Amino acid sequence: MTAKLLVPYLTAGVTENWLDYLLAVQEAGADAVEIGLPFSDPMLDGVTIQESSDRALARGATVASILRDVRGVRDRLRVPLIAFTYANLVYRPGPAVFCRELADAGIRGLIVPDLPLDEAGEVSRAAEAAGVELTLLVAPVTPDDRLAEIVSRSRGYVYAISRMGTTGERDALASSAAALTARIRTAQQRANPDGRLPVLVGFGVSGAAQVAEAGRAGDGVVVGSALMRRVLDGATPHDLGAEVASLRAALDRCDQEDSADRTAYAEVSGHRG
Amino acid sequence: MSALMSVPVAGRFGDFGGRFVPESLVPACGALASAFAAAWADPDFRAELDDLLAVYAGRPTPLTPARTLSADLGIELLLKREDLAHTGSHKINNVLGQALLARRMGKSRLIAETGAGQHGVATATAAALLGLEATVYMGERDIERQQLNVLRMTTLGATVVPVTTGSRTLKDATNEAMRAWVADVGDAHFLLGSVGGPHPYPWMVRELQRVIGDEARRQSPYVPDVVVACVGGGSNSAGTFAGFVDTPARLVGVEAAGGAAMTAGRPGVVHGARSMVLQDAEGQVAEAESIAAGLDYPGIGPEHAHLGAVGRAEYFTVSDTEVISAVRRLARAEGIICALESAHAVAWVLREAGTPLLPTGSRVILTLSGRGDKDMATLGAVA
Ligand SMILES: Cc1ncc(COP(=O)(O)O)c(C=O)c1O
User: Fold this and answer.
1) The pLDDT value given to residue A16
2) Number of domains chain A contains
3) Could you say which of B70, B80, B89, B91 is catalytic?
4) Cα separation of B140 and B173, whole Å?
5) What is the pLDDT of residues A154-176, one digit of tens each?
6) pLDDT of residue A266
């Protein structure tokens, strides 16, 4: 079954027991987990992830300490981890060293929101050499020709930024999300009708209804701020797991309704939980 | 020298520059680069800007001999008087150019970041003049220490949004302005106040500020030995240097000791460009600390990083204490109260005159980037 992918985002190091949140969302049905490596100047993040990043940094979390934490639970992780961070943390040690360190910790993917296609060459080569998948992002304003190139150079997934704005909870899913995933699908069909990367819809997706809607638009959904808000407000790992389980259920329901009238499309390659 | 200070290829100044922005901003940066290239080559646009700079902003600004200080220090010191431009600093040069461009591009809103408030005031001014809306992001700490400029902005009809994250200064205001731009990229122009940021900003802002250096070159009876300016993001210095980069003059940028990206920073990527950045071993950006809000910034424009790397320009630091006494000494010697930012350049000249860095008899052009009214409360508090 080509079930829709649920990809929760967690800011690494946000609390002492952040790995318990990671394991709880895995148990609750995550297909992969995006872990935010906190950066001092998260230019594309809204207030919630800014706050969780600040909290993690104030606790003394570093890339090194986070990767150490991850290595410690490696044998309990069944789903792929994708690091989400900003370009300066990649360039300071150098892309080659940074990507090797991710790989050594068992991290499978990398997303760098301030590294657009035109600047991605060096990091993309370093990621490939280290066996890390560098996922590129597409925005509603990305023109078609550029979109096609991003789709062809992205690895692991294609990340569709659902709206023009930062991360953060919103009242409704932007209509730009479905329009964008449709354009990505068209580009994928044209480039390679036999197999394509899953399209994840992220930025501003919160709550079961929006998750279901985003799931209908793409192959999967990233939920970040809505979960981190709960963590900042004191939710336990168990609470967060319950939240993710309810999102999982909403996504699976949308999938069943959907598959009834969906025309078969080429088998989706990429990560499966 | 011809490769320096020219149009950057692919937004690069040597190893520095580029366009490290979210995909959501890439098309807007591309459109801005094309629009600026077209406008800058359009004689009508240039004429309109030149006219505004003359009849509205009061250009050309004078080149004033600092007679008392020259005699005291044993050098010839000429002051390029950006403090006399409308709104009280060089920021108006860049702002008028970008605001005209924004209007030409059909934008209805200006978004800006500000530290000392001078860039915010200039933006609010241009918005009022051209009938545009202005939203200015300013760190809470800077709002406290630059009250006068906050009142000027609101009087001019701009909305000032306090930024409460991080160090609550210019770095954080810039993050917030960029976030706001992502959310309104169709209607808003991000009016960046210095030579940092993604391509085309470092090139565009330098071109709009080169009027400082070009005028000074024409006004000066000679090519000076040394050209000196303070450096925050680096726009008044870049504009000044542009007029002299093809001469033998030494180019000197003076940073705040607590915001010395060139002197104490490492290559890094912040606010859309690869440049020199104050940061820790893992790449977290450091918080700057300077008495001058306009220099309280951990980065610098990428062209400076390049000019420094190839040795065409030199960068030094001065301390807050040196800056405070420089404001007072200039005021009493010449009857000019300059901004704390500009006083960094003055402090360097006061310290180095007669040393091998600035030998006796040197002929110096110093850009006085702004006036000091905004800093009277800060100065009053340090007795
Ligand atoms: C008077 C004055 N000088 C200098 C600066 C620093 O900016 P830049 O280095 O871009 O000239 C500022 C910034 O606020 C300023 O207000």
Assistant:
1) 97
2) 1
3) B91
4) 9
5) 999 999 999 999 999 898 888 89
6) 37
Nearest atom in ligand 1 to the alpha carbon of residue B295 is 6
Token reading at B68: 């008392």
* H or E element, residue A222: strand A220-223
CA dist., res. B148 & res. B142, Å (int): 11
Residue B70 has a CB neighbour count (10 Å cut-off) of 18
| Residue-number span of the structural domain to which A258 is assigned | 5-167+174-265
Exposed/middle/buried for A250, CB within 10 Å: 0-12, 13-18, 19+?
A: buried
Distance B296 CA to ligand 1 centre (A): 10
Specify the amino acid at residue A249: A
Contacts of A57 in chain B (CB under 8 A): 284
B283 in A contact zone (CB under 8 Å): yes
Q: How many domains are there within chain B?
A: 2
Q: Which residues of A are catalytic?
A: 34, 45
- pLDDT at position A260 is 57
Question: Cα–Cα distance between B364 and B9 in angstroms, integer?
Answer: 32
User: Both tokens of residue B33?
Assistant: 């680069």
B362 lies in some domain: yes
Q: pLDDT at position A261, please?
A: 47
Closest residue in B to A115 (Cα–Cα):
B20
Residue in A with minimal Cα distance to B266: A92
Q: Which residues of B touch A165 (CB under 8 A)?
A: 24, 179, 182-183
**Residue B40 amino acid letter:** W
* Low-confidence residues of chain B: pLDDT under 70: 1-4
Whether B113 is a known active-site residue: answer yes
> How far is CA A210 from each of CA A5, A50, A207, rounded to the nearest angstrom?
14, 22, 6
Would A240 be classed as within a structural domain? Answer: yes
Please write the tens of the pLDDT for every residue from A182-202: 999 999 999 887 789 999 999
Q: Judge if the beta carbon of residue B87 lies within 6 A of ligand 1.
A: no
Q: Give the number of other Cβ atoms within 10 Å of residue B154's Cβ.
A: 13
User: Would you place residue A255 in the very low, low, confident or very high pLDDT band (cuts 50, 70, 90)?
Assistant: confident
Strand B159-163 relative to strand A199-202: parallel, antiparallel, unpaired?
A: unpaired
pTM of the predicted model, to two decimals?
0.95
Q: Is residue A62 part of a domain?
A: yes
Taking an 8 Å cut-off on Cβ atoms, the answer to whether B285 and A88 are in contact is yes
Which pLDDT band holds residue A271 (cuts at 50, 70, 90)?
A: very low
Nearest 10 degrees: Cα torsion A86, A90, A91, A95:
-140
Mutate to test the pocket of ligand 1, among B79, B84, B87, B91 (most ligand atoms within 8 A of CB): B91
User: d(Cα B339, Cα B331) in Å, to the nearest integer?
Assistant: 11
- Measured in angstroms, the CA of B264 and the nearest CA of chain A are apart by 15
Does the distance separating the beta carbons of B283 and A43 come in below 8 Å? no
Residue where a domain stops, chosen among B190, B221, B241:
B190
> Which of B190, B220, B249 finishes a domain?
B190
Tell if the CB–CB gap between A87 and B282 is shorter than 8 Å.
Answer: no
Asked if B286 and B356 sit in the same domain, the reply is yes
Reported as a pLDDT band with limits 50, 70 and 90, residue A1 is very low
Q: What's the pLDDT tens digit per position in A107-146?
A: 999 999 999 999 999 999 999 999 999 999 999 999 999 9
